[in-house]
Amino acid sequence: MSVQHDPVQRADFDQFMVPNYSPAAFIPVRGEGSRVWDQTGRELLDFAGGIAVNVLGHAHPVLVKALTEQANALWHVSNVFTNEPALRLAKKLTDATFAERVFFCNSGAEANEAAFKLARRVAFDKFGEEKCEIIAAVNSFHGRTLFTVSVGGQPKYSDGFGPKIQGISHVPYNDLEALKAAVSDKTCAVVLEPIQGEGGVLPADLAYLQGARELCDKHNALLVFDEVQSGMGRSGSLFTYQHYGVTPDILSSAKSLGGGFPIGAMLTTTELAKHLAVGTHGTTYGGNPLACAVAEAVVDTINTPEVLEGVKTKHQQFKTALEKIGQQYAVFSEVRGLGLLIGCVLTDAWKGKAKVILDAAAQEGLMVLQAGPDVVRFAPSLVVTEAEINEGLARFERAVAKVTQA
């Protein structure tokens, strides 16, 4: 028997919600696979993926089954106790990566908060309080807590909240010489996204990540990879560090890890993990059975050669079609990214108009994203079909045609 709810409409957002978001004019109410339906029954194809979260689309039967079974068993016990789904998930993540230890939390910001606190604690314990400086990239994004937003290299998000956390500096992304000039023996961590997500879907150069690894080794600093957006198969490897062959000391994961259920994880080594001894860090909900049961099902489903190879094939399908659209309508100067995290960089004539294209796509029944005002971003489900890609990009082309001919 379904529960009867009071009717709601988009205007209720403006009446009851804090106005820090500006959501679309329609309200999605149901999803299946790569399709979503709104309150009026209109169908849209979802190439936004809840901002690179819905890695297996909507209502994937394997995830629904995992959640339902766990919901009927145990929801929450806190970290005064451990639980079976958390232990199974931790083992699977360590088996599949460089890591030997996992800390579970609820979001990417929390995973990064734990990563940055661990980096500072390690340096404090081993070298003293002077070694506390964190170097991150301009235009990076690491979350919205005060610490993570300070490490993120976008002042528009960090300004206006009082004094900043000290000891954080920013250097241009993919500029190894700038990084060399910034790193010193006071550096405790270099924090990088292997693919800058919010900064415009910009993959790192291999030599840049290799150079960052060498600099960290030379100066006893830790290399932290933020794989909140690039991880969990999105690049065609389980984590993007594996694509590059450059191993970090600490890695953060979230978004696709839970396929839509909130969960984050910080992965690291035994040697580093021991610096977060009992009582040094914690979270009430982190590692809860519901989230971990779903995430375990996500890992089992996507960490297969078939799915990961499929991501690379689908990347090519997207890239070829988007480059063609870009040339035909003179809107994109470049199509970049890895796997199913793709950014279309707008030409000078269309700079600042990513939102216009996003809105036009929604009118044609396609959900896409932007990565800043100058890049249209695609982050569809990893199991989106070839036919759905063709259909969605046909809708996208109609949207671009309308915008450019207006």
UniProtKB/TrEMBL annotation:
<keyword id="KW-0808">Transferase</keyword>
<dbReference type="InterPro" id="IPR049704">
    <property type="entry name" value="Aminotrans_3_PPA_site"/>
</dbReference>
<comment type="pathway">
    <text>Amino-acid biosynthesis; L-arginine biosynthesis; N(2)-acetyl-L-ornithine from L-glutamate: step 4/4.</text>
</comment>
<dbReference type="InterPro" id="IPR005814">
    <property type="entry name" value="Aminotrans_3"/>
</dbReference>
<keyword id="KW-0032">Aminotransferase</keyword>
<dbReference type="GO" id="GO:0042802">
    <property type="term" value="F:identical protein binding"/>
</dbReference>
<keyword id="KW-0028">Amino-acid biosynthesis</keyword>
<keyword id="KW-0055">Arginine biosynthesis</keyword>
<feature type="binding site">
    <location>
        <position position="283"/>
    </location>
    <ligand>
        <name>N(2)-acetyl-L-ornithine</name>
    </ligand>
</feature>
<dbReference type="GO" id="GO:0030170">
    <property type="term" value="F:pyridoxal phosphate binding"/>
</dbReference>
<dbReference type="InterPro" id="IPR015421">
    <property type="entry name" value="PyrdxlP-dep_Trfase_major"/>
</dbReference>
<feature type="binding site">
    <location>
        <begin position="226"/>
        <end position="229"/>
    </location>
    <ligand>
        <name>pyridoxal 5'-phosphate</name>
    </ligand>
</feature>
<feature type="binding site">
    <location>
        <position position="141"/>
    </location>
    <ligand>
        <name>pyridoxal 5'-phosphate</name>
    </ligand>
</feature>
<dbReference type="InterPro" id="IPR004636">
    <property type="entry name" value="AcOrn/SuccOrn_fam"/>
</dbReference>
<dbReference type="Pfam" id="PF00202">
    <property type="entry name" value="Aminotran_3"/>
</dbReference>
<dbReference type="InterPro" id="IPR015424">
    <property type="entry name" value="PyrdxlP-dep_Trfase"/>
</dbReference>
<comment type="subunit">
    <text>Homodimer.</text>
</comment>
<dbReference type="GO" id="GO:0006526">
    <property type="term" value="P:L-arginine biosynthetic process"/>
</dbReference>
<dbReference type="InterPro" id="IPR017652">
    <property type="entry name" value="Ac/SucOrn_transaminase_bac"/>
</dbReference>
<protein>
    <recommendedName>
        <fullName>Acetylornithine aminotransferase</fullName>
        <ecNumber>2.6.1.11</ecNumber>
    </recommendedName>
</protein>
<dbReference type="GO" id="GO:0003992">
    <property type="term" value="F:N2-acetyl-L-ornithine:2-oxoglutarate 5-aminotransferase activity"/>
</dbReference>
<comment type="similarity">
    <text>Belongs to the class-III pyridoxal-phosphate-dependent aminotransferase family. ArgD subfamily.</text>
</comment>
<keyword id="KW-0963">Cytoplasm</keyword>
<dbReference type="GO" id="GO:0005737">
    <property type="term" value="C:cytoplasm"/>
</dbReference>
<feature type="binding site">
    <location>
        <begin position="108"/>
        <end position="109"/>
    </location>
    <ligand>
        <name>pyridoxal 5'-phosphate</name>
    </ligand>
</feature>
<dbReference type="InterPro" id="IPR050103">
    <property type="entry name" value="Class-III_PLP-dep_AT"/>
</dbReference>
<dbReference type="InterPro" id="IPR015422">
    <property type="entry name" value="PyrdxlP-dep_Trfase_small"/>
</dbReference>
<keyword id="KW-0663">Pyridoxal phosphate</keyword>
<feature type="binding site">
    <location>
        <position position="144"/>
    </location>
    <ligand>
        <name>N(2)-acetyl-L-ornithine</name>
    </ligand>
</feature>
<feature type="modified residue" description="N6-(pyridoxal phosphate)lysine">
    <location>
        <position position="255"/>
    </location>
</feature>
<feature type="binding site">
    <location>
        <position position="284"/>
    </location>
    <ligand>
        <name>pyridoxal 5'-phosphate</name>
    </ligand>
</feature>
